[in-house]
Amino acid sequence: MINVENLTKRYAHHLAVDNVSFRCEVGSITGFLGPNGAGKSTTLRMLTGLTPPTSGHVTIDGSSYARLPNPGRLIGVMLDAAAQHPGRTGLETLKLTARLLDVPAKEAVQMLDRVGLAGAAKRRVGNYSLGMRQRLGIGNALLGDPSVLVLDEPANGMDPEGIRWMRGLLQDFAAGGGTVLLSSHLLGEVQATVDRLVVIGNGRIVADGSLDEMLAGSGTVVRAVDGPALAAALAGAGLTATTRDDGSLHVVGSAEEVGRVAAASGAVLTALGEGGGLEDVFFRLTSPAAA
Ligand SMILES: Nc1ncnc2c1ncn2[C@@H]1O[C@H](COP(=O)(O)OP(=O)(O)OP(=O)(O)O)[C@@H](O)[C@H]1O
C-alpha cells in the first residue's frame, strides 16, 4: 500500500505540490491524472525518494522509500523510460539491475521474454523504439518481484498491441495482490485500466475516488427525434439538460432517469449513453473555472 500524507514541494516561490494526500490500496490500480505542470512527476519523484519533500511524507507498506534496505524488491519504479543508457543492450540493462537487486542473472533473460523483448536482447537500447524502452523499463521495474509498481506515463509511445499487453500485465499484477500507481495522459487507456483515480490540478488534489464514482458524475448523453420536446420533459422532471452543437442533450442524471422521463413523455430516442466519459470528467475537474 502507498500512503501519501500532506506532501508539499516548493521550488523558490513556486508551490509545485500543495499538501497532497491519497492512498493506493493493495490489489488496485490507481490512475494519477492532471494537466501538464500539475505536479504529477514531482509527486512521483518524492514518493520514490528522488526529490526531498518540503513537508509531508510517504510510506510504502509502512516504510519510507529511503529506509527500505533494497527498495527494488518492494517497489518497482519507472519514471522515464527514455532515460535508459543508450549504449547498453536490453539484456545488459536488465542484468545490471539484477545485480543491484541481488536477483539471479537468469531472471533478466526470463524478464526480457516476459516483456516481449527476447528478440531484441542484444540490440542497444539507443536503437529501441520508445515503446520498446517502455517495455524494458517495465521489465526493470518488475525484476525485483515487487508488490508495488509506480509508473510515469508507461503507455507513452506504445502501439495498440503494446497498450493492451501492458493493461493485462498491470491488471494481473493487481489481481495477484499488487498495488499500482500510474500517471498517464491517455484518458481512454486510463479508463480501461484503473480502478481508482487521483486527479491533481495546480499542485492540489481535485478528486480522489473510484473510477465508477467519477464516471457516474459525467452524466448521460441522449438524442431524440424531437430534441427540444425531450429537453422540456427533462426540465419538467427536474433534470438539467444542455443542448450540444450536434443536437444531442447532455443530462445531469443517470441513463435510467433519462430513459424513464423519455418513456413517460413518449419521446423517440435515437441514442442513449454515458456522458463524455473520463475526458469530460477530467476537463471539468481541471479547467481554470473549476480551480
Ligand atoms: N526542479 C524544478 N525546479 C523548479 N520548478 C520545477 C522543478 N520541477 C518541476 N518544477 C515545476 O513544478 C510544476 C510541476 O511540475 P511536474 O513536472 O511535477 O508536472 P507534471 O504534472 O508531471 O507535468 P507533465 O504532465 O507535463 O509531465 C511545474 O510548474 C514545473 O515547472
Automatic annotation (TrEMBL):
Database matches in Pfam families: ABC_tran
Keywords: ATP-binding, Nucleotide-binding, Transport
MF terms (GO), sorted A to Z: ATP binding; ATP hydrolysis activity
Domain of life the protein comes from: Bacteria
Family membership: Belongs to the ABC transporter superfamily.
Protein name: ABC-2 type transport system ATP-binding protein
SUPFAM superfamilies: P-loop containing nucleoside triphosphate hydrolases
Stored InterPro entries: AAA+_ATPase, ABC_transporter-like_ATP-bd, ABC_transporter-like_CS, P-loop_NTPase
Record has Magnesium as a keyword: no
PANTHER family per UniProt: ABC TRANSPORTER, ATP-BINDING PROTEIN
Residue span(s) of domain ABC transporter: 2-227
